[in-house]
Amino acid sequence: TSPLSLCYAIGGAPYQITGSALGFFLQIFLLDVAQLDPFYASIILFVGRAWDAITDPTVGFLVSRSRSTRIGRMMPWILCSAPFAVATYFLIWFVPPFEQGKVVWYLVFYCLFQSMQTCFHVPYSALTMFISTDQTERDSATAYRMTIEVLGTVLGTAIQGQIVGGTNDCPADLEGRNVSKFTVSTKQAYMISTGVICIIYLLCTLVLFLGVKERKESKRYRGQLLTFRRGLYMVMSHEPYIKLVIGFLFTSLAFMVKTHPCLTFWESKRRDYQNILLVIMLSGTLTIPLWQWFLTRFGKKKAVYFGMTWAVPFMILIVSIKSKLIISYLVSVAAGVSVAAAFLLPWSMLPDVVDDFKVKNPGVHGHEALFYSFFVFFVKFASGVSLGISTLSLKFAGYETGACLQPEAVSLTLKTLVSLVPVVLIFIGLLILKTYPIDEKRRQDNQKLLQEML
To answer: How does the protein's chain sit in the membrane according to the entry (predicted)?
Structure first.
């Protein structure tokens, strides 16, 4: 299963490459390159994410109702959406030659890209259930996927950060706050990095299509198709799913707030920002196999507790100690360990929830995409909330667009958002996940029952 798992995993890279570039750099781009007011930038980020989240259940339902084709039920969605996703992504990073209507330009193309990305990512995520019926093989494919997706985040950060980072350094002598750190060359750098990402997006999609054959469903167990209303009711009334989603909603929100570009090393380590992000993501990539071993050996719930709480001391340390740069890099390596757990564990536990639903509802068909789409919906909702809150917080703190030196209130706001807020959110999420009912025994029992059903 390794070649298949690897090809499947490569298909997840485009989502994370574009997601990391947008998540880490779009706010900076809108504020300092496109020269938008922080209020309008926050509206674009929040509305775009909210629209993206709303489209997930819709696409999930449409995918669940799709007819199976010669290449499967999920693959046509992936192939058809990729070219449109690439085109709209490119236009997000283009600065139009007019001032009036800039806000509408970025809002429209941001929403269009998110829609196309949803048409790609929801069926791709649900494809996990069509690779194999064996839980071990699916867990292996998920581990491969998360490794590649973290690498995708590294790649997106590297491409965007390193190409653009060389053009936006502030002058060493800052006598005033109105010195802009962006020039025409910065816009060109964004275009170059965007073009590279678009090419990688298409290549990864091609590898996924050529390397993964979607497993056909057994005609004997197709059962009845769900209507949207009934599907929504059944998915949202499944207890393990609700507890899993809400628990990881809080933990995801914590990590999104913490890893947001404007919330880490903005003031004191401006020149090393891109490198620090790369260290965090590389550390996460290297530790995903460790977490895969840990959850196999000790169970997934224990892995959640240990992985999430690992980050708490470093969230406090990063703002409480005025350290040298080398200490910051060491803290970043440690923080990457928790980032790996945050990537791997939710997606590793979600197939167990879908299996549990199958055991309790053997006559229902087409529900896989609904589970994945609503899960993605809540993750994106958390992302939209974190982006909106952080951007508005900057505005209220007195952030000055394009200025190299920011008020002291901005620094205080950032410290609060990277330490106190994430720690509280993590502990709330862990309290909810403690009630998650699928332990190792129940998971193995479900596996046996499903094998008997097949």
So the answer is: Multi-pass membrane protein
| Rounded CA separation 102/92 (Å) | 11
Tens digit of each residue's pLDDT, the chain (454 residues): 578 888 899 999 999 899 888 877 888 888 878 888 888 888 888 888 778 778 888 888 888 778 778 888 889 999 999 999 999 999 999 888 887 888 899 999 999 999 999 999 989 988 888 887 777 778 888 888 888 888 888 788 778 877 876 555 555 444 444 444 445 577 888 889 899 999 999 999 999 998 888 877 655 444 556 667 777 788 888 999 999 989 988 888 887 766 553 444 444 455 566 677 678 778 888 888 898 899 888 888 889 999 888 878 877 776 676 656 677 777 778 878 888 888 788 888 988 998 898 888 877 766 777 888 888 777 777 766 776 677 677 677 776 655 556 666 766 777 777 777 788 888 999 999 999 998 888 888 888 887 777 6
Structure tokens at 255: 């990590």
Q: Which pairs count as long-range contacts for 95-100, CB under 8 Å and 24+ apart, including other chains?
A: 95/33, 95/34, 95/187
Alpha carbons 221 and 83: distance in angstroms, whole number: 34
Alpha helices in 237-272 (DSSP H): 239-259
d(CA 60, CA 31): 34
Q: What's the burial of 383, exposed, middle or buried (CB within 10 Å: 0-12/13-18/19+)?
A: buried
> pTM of the prediction?
0.70
> What domains lie within the chain, and their CATH numbers?
1-166+185-214 (1.20.1250.20), 234-453 (1.20.1250.20)
